[in-house]
Structures are given as C-alpha cells and as structure tokens.
Amino acid sequence: MFDVQKIRADFPILSREVNGKPLVYFDNGASAQKPQVVIDAISNAYAHEYANVHRGLHTLSNIATDNYEAVRAKIANFLNASDEEEIVFNSGTTEGINMVAYGWAMAHLREGDEVILSVMEHHANIVPWHFLRERMGVVIKWVDTDSTGALDPARVIDAITPRTKLVAITHMSNVLGTVVDVKTICAEARSRGICTVIDGSQAAVHMPVDVQDMGCDFYAITGHKLYGPSGSGAIFCRRERMEEMRPFIGGGDMIREVTKDTVTYNDPPMKFEAGTPGIVQMIGLGVAIDYMQGIGMQAIKAHEDDLRDYAVQKLGGLNWVQVQGTTPTKGAIFSFTIDGAAHAHDISTILDKRGVAVRAGQHCCGPLMAHIGINATCRASMGVYNTKSEIDTWIDALELAHDLFA
Predict the structure, then answer these.
(1) What is the CATH number of domain 4-28+296-405?
(2) What CATH architecture is 49-294?
(3) What residues does 257 pair with on adjacent strands?
(4) What pLDDT is stored for residue 1 in this prediction?
(5) CA neighbours closer than 13 Å in the CB half-sphere of residue 234
(6) Residue ranges per structural domain of the chain
(7) pLDDT tens per residue, range 165-188
(8) For residue 301, which of 341, 324, 332, 326 has the smallest C-alpha distance?
(9) What positions does the domain Aminotransferase class V occupy (predicted)?
(10) Has this prediction a pTM greater than 0.70?
(11) Residues annotated as part of the active site
C-alpha cells in the first residue's frame, strides 16, 4: 500500500524547517528532492568505488563501469524501450533535445522545412529549433492550446504539411500540467514519415511511460526531476533514427580510431556519448529509478491524482485565485495568480515565510505566457512525498498573501 509518511521519511530534507516553519516543498516541477538511498549511493560511489569508466583494466574502473552501464538497462525498462542500446546518456533533457537538433535535424532538414511545436513548450524544446531557424531557414509552426490549456491532437495533425519534417511536443506541460495525447500525434506523424521528439521531463516522474506504445522517435528525460542527481539524464532514440544520426559532440569514447587524416566512430549509443560522463550522477539516477519503481509508477500517479483533485477542491473556494490550466486529467501542477495582488515574486516570498516553496516567473515558457497574456505566475508542483495537509498549509499561506495585497 502507498504510505506517504513512510516515503517522506526517506527524504531527509523534508524534516527541516524554513523560516521557523515545516518545509512544504512544492517546487518539484523545477527539481525534486533526493531520497537517502540516492544520497548514500552518490556518497558511496565517490568514497569507495570511484574511477573513470570504460577501458580501465583495474578493479575500481571495472566496478564503476559495471555500475554505470547497469543504469542503461534500468532506464530502458523504465521507459519500456525494446533495447538498452536505444538509451543515450546525457546531462538531461536540454542536452538530449539539442542532440536531436544537431545530430538528426541538421542533417535532414533544409531551408523551408517545418518543425511543429505547441505553445506550451519549455525553452529547452524551443531554442534548439530556433537555432535551426536562424542558421538554416527552418520554419517553426506553432499550435495553440484551448482556453482550458488542453492541446487537441487534431490541431497538431492539421498543422502538418508536405514540408513538415519534425514534431516536437511536451508530454506534460511544466506550467499548465496538461497531459498531451502524444500517442495519437506520434502515430499520425510516423505514418507520414515525420520525426517525433517528446519532452518527457515532467511526465516521466508522474506516470508510467511506454515509448513502444507511444510510437515516438525520441523521448527525453532529466534526472533531477526524477528524484535523482542534477547533471543526469537520458534520451530514448528509436534505432532507425539513431542510425540516421551523426555525432553531436566529438571526443573520447565516441570513436573507434583517430588518425591524422581520418576518424571512425563507435557504435551507438557510445557514438553520442563523448568524453568523461557524469559517472556518479548516472549511478545516482539508476538508484532513483529503482526507488520510484519500488513504489510503483501507477501508485505514484494515483497518489498525485488524489493530491490534484484535493487541491482543485480547495482552490475552488478561493475566487480570487486564477489558475492557468484546468483540464481534469492534468498533473498536480498549479500555476496561479492572485487578483489585485503584487507580482508573482512577491506572492512567492510571502509563501516562503510560511515555509511553502513555490516557483515564480515564466517557468522557461515565454511563448505560453504571451499566449495566455500573463507576465508571470506562481507555480505549485507536487510530488510523491507531498500530502493533503501540506496543501492546507499552502492554502492558508495564499489567504495571508491575499489579505496583505488586497
């Protein structure tokens, strides 16, 4: 059975106070806290088992390599990839999407070709395509959400033309919490030979992910949102697409042989993993994935859906709070403003005085903010260890902020 108090005991930071109040950590959309097992794994790797990976013939290098490479199979299982060699390690989603832009798209798109994005995309899934727009004349086409923040797959499909070569869509909005029917989008795109890139940064931590069922070409995840270390992440690359890619970064490990006149590359996924990697970070991510799967992704989703529904109910009694994104199947992410109140940064500061940690600003989603006509919001984003009583504390802090600024 899901025992949130037992889970909370696994995260040492949750026992601390902030400004004399128990910490209520609602900034999981930016970065999640780490369980003790992850912290211990990182400490142990540095203290007792650290060495560089691959090619070393000594004991410590063999241990580090085995522990590091074991994470590839864990991530493949986590995403239900058909083969662990379809998993490329990186520092997180930003690097993963840039790898697709430089390694696949620059080799396959030409001036006038189209990339379709939703207006909800994080800057990590926008700026790489702007690079192609600036440098190659690629055209970016935008698809809007409706008034509830939902994205109808038909809108994305209707935007496809003969010049469309790539569709890059978030699985879950980091601002609105909207969950996108990426399976329908990927199926249509694949039937037309169009490449699909899915930003899974938010979704992968909140729900089960099955890339085979989804039918995407690329699916990016980032470790620090998955209760793992920062600087860790991976991208699923469908084998057919991987074979079409050229290397993104050059250096050690991604080569077979280098001479004065030639270079031959290693087989994928090593072909795309140049230089000394984040060895300990990836080992920590593997432990974080073990931890999540030990709880069960369906159980995590059910718990967070319950938190979402409770928060919706509590917010419903505050007619002066405006929430962006109201689809009933959204994740437990609430971006909000207060009528007549000061800037989101001021609201966030008041909440912090009550120990409630939320994010304030544009959340790396400039086009979305322009679309909904708001300069900034506060965002409360919940995770596996959050509780209904913490939501009550957040609501009380919101009422204080409203009283101060009204």
Answers:
(1) 3.90.1150.10
(2) 3-Layer(aba) Sandwich (3.40)
(3) 264
(4) 81
(5) 32
(6) 4-28+296-405, 49-294
(7) 999 999 999 999 999 999 999 999
(8) 332
(9) 24-392
(10) yes
(11) 364
